[in-house]
Design brief:
By secondary structure, the protein is mainly alpha-helical. The chain has one domain. The protein is built from four helices and no strands. The chain has helices at about 5-55, 55-70, 70-80, 85-125. The longest helix is centred in the first third of the chain and has 51 residues, at about 5-55. It is elongated, with a radius of gyration of 27 Å. The model has no long low-confidence stretch (mean pLDDT about 80).
Length: about 140
């Protein structure tokens, strides 16, 4: 085997390994971030539908008035009890989706930390001279 041929193979092998690892990282991140992205989309859709039934400007105006007078808990209870059934259901659905979004966000952040920690370990364990084997 010709020595120049050996040297040409090593960079190709290294880039091939890098491409495989990038694909693995990509699939790992997609699997861990897609539930959170889906939850965010669901929140946007439900919030948009809720704005069809609720006047956000009036709610914010009444909320600031209730907050200034100190009756925030009474305002919240009366506002929720006086709304129609569709609005209550939308608020409950929005709360449930929000709960799952926070849960999926925690999983996504954990995945990013795991990936970051794994790549920093890999970079620190790579030998400085890969041509020489260490015993």
């Amino acid at each position: 085997m010709h020595p120049a041929y050996k040297q040409d193979i090593k960079p190709t092998t290294k880039t091939f390994k890098q491409r495989i690892m990038r694909r693995i990282y990509f699939v790992f991140m997609v699997r861990n971030l897609s539930p959170f992205a889906f939850d965010c989309l669901a929140i946007v859709i439900v919030a948009f539908i809720a704005t069809l039934f609720v006047s956000v400007n009036d709610v914010l105006l009444n909320l600031s008035t209730a907050q200034n007078s100190g009756n925030l808990s009474n305002f919240s209870l009366s506002a929720f009890s006086a709304t129609e059934l569709q609005t209550k259901l939308l608020l409950v659905v929005l709360g449930a989706i929000g709960f799952f979004a926070v849960r999926h966000l925690k999983c996504a952040l954990r995945a990013v930390r795991t990936l970051k920690h794994g790549t920093s370990e890999t970079q620190s364990t790579v030998p400085k001279n890969p041509d020489k084997t260490q015993f």
